[in-house]
Amino acid sequence: MKKQVVKLLKPLLDLDEQQIFSVLETPPSREQGDLAFPCFQLAKHFKKSPALIAGELAGKLSAENLAAAGFSKVEAAGPYLNFFFDRQQLAEQVLASSVRDQLADYQIGANKTVVVEYSSPNIAKHFKLYHIRSTMIGQALANTYAALGYQVERMNHLGDWGTQFGKLLAAYFKWGDDEKIKADPLTELVHLYVKFHEEAEKNPELEEEGRLWFKRLEDGDEQAVRLWQWFKEESLKEFEKIYRLLGVTFDHYLGESYYGEKMEEVIEELQAKGLLEESEGALVVRLDDYNIPPCIIKKSDGASIYATRDIAAALYRYERFNPEKILYVVDQRQSLHFQQVFAVLERMGYEFAKRCHHIDFGVMKIEGEIGSTRKGKGVLLNEVLEQAIKKAEEIINQKNPTLPNKAEVAKAVGIGAIVFNDLKQHRTREVNFKWDEAFNFEGKTGPYVQYTHARICSLLRRAGDMEIKPVPHPFYEQPLVWEIIYTLYQYPSVLVETVKKDDPSQIAKYLLDLCQLFNRFYAEERIFVDDQDEQRAKLALCRKIALVLRHGLSMLTIEAPEEI
Ligand code: ARG
């Protein structure tokens, strides 16, 4: 409809299409109109007050032209020119189309690629809470970019390289027990790693052994590589269990180790460009112009480091995919690291450094016992997920004990509660997970959205095989109903906003609003009425709400069971 407004106004104004398009606003309430064109910036040009211009423009738009463009009327209100949609026409258009049809006009990513790097846990360690945030924010962004036509490369930058693996190998040779590792790999490997640090405090020579083993690993020592590979395989098995549970997928598992061979090239390139300096035996790139500390490229003992691997990874992504954007969905605590990496790329002369974005987020805390830290363990994500599924099961047993596929629904609701709670507010804010709050079926929660969706599905089941069609009906013009249709119409713009801001909470908040509108409607209106046309109109509305809820939840990687 914005495009229609542009078409109507273009012949009357000395502005190009983009200038008109970009200033169009949504008036605060539907009574004031559905799209507004503010006339402020025209005042200078026409040497008239904005209100006068708005009035004149309103007079110049003929009723026929407006109707042909899908508007019922236009009104000047102060400095604004307010357009009112033809409600019958838009209702039919919105309610008769699938979400996919609706999105067809919003394929802003056609022929563009975006790399989304997310999750990226460290092997030989447990999945941490900040990894679930990275995982779910990243997956939601990847889903949304894909829905808008982008080619998305979903990338898991596993933490599978670094001096810590030298320490782990040293510990393994001293105290390792293969049977124990096989029984519970991550716990046992963490155990070895923690023991290494405890012992190293008493015996500093251990540190040297750790360094030696990492050197051997970097040099391709067969025994070291074989063990490292084993630890990695066992870790991936654990991570994949979690990904399966969460419905998360990747196109590429390219861990830090992948960039091992590319490191020398990076160092040579930095050298050739005259960017490397020696500092206390290490090689660094100074970043004084950026007012940040130098980026260390190579340590004094010759070992490669995290930042260097990230520079190699960025170059690799750029060369392989030529993406419009590279998103790094990583914890706030690493923001200096990314500033340094991007600044080094810029100093190397890469324009694409500007296309790299650190998508940061705040910490997540989980209430209760399960959140307490056991030595060397921290919060175990799979325990939290299991607990959530159990809790969902208890609720379902109370609410709907005869539900057929209870286990499946409990999984969807339990995980939905955690994921929605993670995504419902701006990602940079801290997340406090409170069990009762996140499972409140009437609160701002995943289960609330899932339950509203299931409720609509049950209405549609009741309608049986009755033909559901958006027939013209005065019903669509009622304020609340029109508000709902307008909200449904806006769904694609919410996805666009989500990728513009790289913020999935736009979708979560939208879903909550839509649920609230539906529940108000459901409380005020009877759906099954004698007037068949009215009933059809109402059911068509319900069906589209359910479709949009389902689609929106899928963007957040949350399932939408048809019955709860
Ligand atoms: N493995 C790291 C961690 O768990 C996160 C990796 C972030 N990504 C990157 N390109 N550095 O803290």
From TrEMBL:
Mind telling me which InterPro entries this protein's record contains? Arg-tRNA-ligase, Arg-tRNA-synth_N, Arg-tRNA-synth_N_sf, ArgRS_core, DALR_anticod-bd, Rossmann-like_a/b/a_fold, tRNAsynth_Ia_anticodon-bd
The subcellular location is:
Cytoplasm
GO BP, sorted A to Z = arginyl-tRNA aminoacylation
User: Recorded E.C. number(s)?
Assistant: 6.1.1.19
The record's listing under Gene3D superfamilies reads:
Arginyl tRNA synthetase N-terminal domain (3.30.1360.70), HUPs (3.40.50.620), Isoleucyl-tRNA Synthetase, Domain 1 (1.10.730.10)
Ribonucleoprotein listed as a keyword = no
Instruction: Tell me the lineage of the source organism.
Output: Bacteria, Bacillati, Bacillota, Bacilli, Bacillales
Tell me which species this is from: Caldalkalibacillus thermarum (strain TA2.A1)
The protein's GO terms of the molecular function aspect are:
arginine-tRNA ligase activity; ATP binding
Reactions listed under catalytic activity: tRNA(Arg) + L-arginine + ATP = L-arginyl-tRNA(Arg) + AMP + diphosphate
The record's family statement is: Belongs to the class-I aminoacyl-tRNA synthetase family.
**Mind telling me which HAMAP family this protein's record contains?**
Arg_tRNA_synth
Which EC main class describes this enzyme?
A: ligase
Q: Where is the DALR anticodon binding domain?
A: 449-564
Protein name listed in UniProt = Arginine--tRNA ligase
Please name the NCBIfam families in this protein's record. Answer: argS
Q: Which UniProt keywords apply?
A: Aminoacyl-tRNA synthetase, ATP-binding, Cytoplasm, Ligase, Nucleotide-binding, Protein biosynthesis
Q: Name one Pfam family in it.
A: tRNA-synt_1d
GO terms for cellular component: cytoplasm
Q: Where is the Arginyl tRNA synthetase N-terminal domain?
A: 3-85
